[in-house]
């Protein structure tokens, strides 16, 4: 697999606090990577650096390098970045006193020249993407009148029409009910493009990501398959709760569960200890 992104010695300090500390990893074409870790670990900050939001890599507080196809990301124009990355972040700007159709059209902008007219192909792309996220009926709805979950699905559909090589998603399952959590992550998996996303739900991350990066306090603690990263020892240390790892009987995926000691039923605990990998912080 060819390397798309190379992150080397990436560090970011704000007000003497280390937000990201000496991060190193590469991303190969076609990988689906989940970034996991507790609140404040630096997950969103890492995504922001990778996509060089607001040209932030020029900031003197950020050191190290990010290369896209062997070229420093600092050398890419905003339009080139948008051609390579489709980004759905958690905090959206106030663009959304718009119809769903207008929000979707914004996904086509990186590939268009100024004043170019919408083609039938564009309209078909928008309709297809909305159908994929179950919102074909919402084309003429006001974006800001949709529920949080529906808005999230529109933004993912907008990223789909952008047809970029790398999809960056910050908590894509936020606001989604369990049905759409699986729908959206399955959809993302079936795109056959490179995906980097932050995910809070470790079991969803395990099911849908082939590789996980575990961050804690700005440090990259582990990088590997779900089975390698979701170890009870690592997770109980990072999240501060006892943790057990098991294999899901239906999916065969590595799964983890956390619990408080107060919630353990004595006999069950002994069985669990015997059958599964368990660790306490
Ligand atoms: N612009 C900023 N100014 C000051 N501190 C910041 C800034 N951006 C991020 N931080 C701090 O950096 C740390 C990492 O934040 P970040 O949003 O990347 O964490 P996260 O892992 O995505 O958290 P969450 O799971 O809660 O979304 C936090 O302590 C946050 O307060």
TrEMBL record:
Ranges for domain ABC transporter:
5-242
- Give the signal peptide as a residue range, or say none if absent: none
Among Gene3D superfamilies, the record links this protein to: P-loop containing nucleotide triphosphate hydrolases
List the keywords (alphabetical).
Answer: ATP-binding, Nucleotide-binding, Transport
**InterPro entries given for it?**
AAA+_ATPase (IPR003593), ABC_transporter-like_ATP-bd (IPR003439), ABC_transporter-like_CS (IPR017871), P-loop_NTPase (IPR027417)
One Pfam entry name: ABC_tran
- Please give the superkingdom of this protein's source: Bacteria
Q: Name one GO molecular function term.
A: ATP binding
Q: Does the UniProt entry include the keyword Magnesium?
A: no
Reply yes or no: does the keyword tRNA processing apply. no
Q: Hey, which family's this protein in?
A: Belongs to the ABC transporter superfamily.
- What is the protein's given name? ABC transporter ATP-binding protein
* The organism of origin for this protein: Colwellia ponticola
The uppermost taxa in this organism's lineage are: Bacteria, Pseudomonadati, Pseudomonadota, Gammaproteobacteria, Alteromonadales
């Amino acid at each position: 697999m060819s390397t798309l992104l190379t992150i080397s010695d990436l560090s970011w300090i704000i007000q003497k606090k280390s937000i990201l500390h000496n991060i190193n990893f590469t991303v190969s074409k076609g990988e689906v990577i989940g970034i996991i870790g507790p609140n404040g670990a630096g997950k969103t900050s890492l995504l922001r650096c990778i996509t060089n939001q607001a040209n932030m890599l020029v900031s003197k507080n950020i050191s190290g390098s990010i290369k896209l196809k062997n070229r420093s990301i600092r050398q890419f124009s905003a339009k080139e970045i948008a051609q390579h990355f489709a980004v759905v972040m958690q905090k959206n700007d106030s663009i959304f006193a718009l119809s769903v159709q207008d929000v979707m059209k914004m996904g086509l902008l990186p590939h268009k020249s100024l004043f170019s007219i919408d083609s039938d192909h564009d309209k078909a792309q928008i309709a297809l993407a909305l159908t994929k996220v179950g919102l074909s009926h919402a084309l003429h709805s006001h974006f800001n009148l949709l529920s949080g979950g529906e808005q999230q699905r529109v933004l993912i559909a907008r990223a789909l029409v952008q047809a970029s090589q790398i999809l960056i998603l910050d908590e894509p399952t936020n606001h989604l009910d369990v049905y759409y959590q699986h729908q959206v992550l399955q959809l993302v998996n079936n795109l056959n493009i490179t995906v980097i996303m932050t995910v809070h739900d470790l079991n969803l991350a395990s099911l849908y990501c082939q590789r996980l990066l575990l961050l804690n306090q700005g440090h990259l603690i582990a990088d590997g398959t779900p089975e390698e990263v979701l170890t009870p020892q690592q997770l109980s240390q990072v999240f501060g709760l006892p943790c057990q790892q098991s294999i899901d009987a239906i999916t065969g995926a590595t799964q983890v569960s956390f619990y408080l000691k107060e919630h353990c039923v004595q006999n069950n605990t002994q069985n669990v200890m015997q059958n599964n990998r368990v660790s306490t912080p």
